[in-house]
Amino acid sequence: MLLPYGILEMCGRQFWIEPTRYYDISQFANKFLPPVSKTILFNKVLLLNENKKDSMANIKIGHPFINELLFQAKLIDHGLGSKVQIFKMKSKKKFRKRFGYRTKYTRLQFESILTKQSFKNFDLLIEK
């Protein structure tokens, strides 16, 4: 049996999200985030496939988003990715330049898919 999955929009990109898996998001580290081990809610759900045994295909598609669903994630870690080396050279001009950088990333573990009705103060928990 397949796990339920959804397509979520974060940081201008779309991610295939399955509960109980973790993801490294590169552009998320620059924005203000709560400290490690806090729970974050995401409301920009584009698609949800529930994959239940009784129904063959139970797919919800948003226009553009599904308003009644939330993804709950736990912030695991902030870190630096692998180093990227950049080397520039112009032939016959004796120009050589070498530099590099390490991208910042945020590791999120998605725990569950929630409904809007399970929160009383829904408007206070999400960012619009």
Biggest pleated-sheet summary = 4 strands, antiparallel
Number of helical stretches of at least 4 residues: 1
Overall mean pLDDT score? 83
What is the chain-wise order of helices and strands? EEEEEEEEH
Percent of residues in helices comes to: under 10%
Q: How many E strands?
A: 8
Ranges with pLDDT <50 over ≥5 residues? none
Beta content comes to over 45%
Radius of gyration: 20 Å
Envelope shape: elongated
Count of individual domains: 1
Main sheet strand line-up: 2-1-5-6
Distance between the termini: 35 Å
Q: By helix and strand content, what is the structural category?
A: mainly beta
Family: Belongs to the bacterial ribosomal protein bL21 family.
Pfam families: Ribosomal_L21p
GO cellular component, one term: mitochondrial large ribosomal subunit
Subcellular location: Plastid
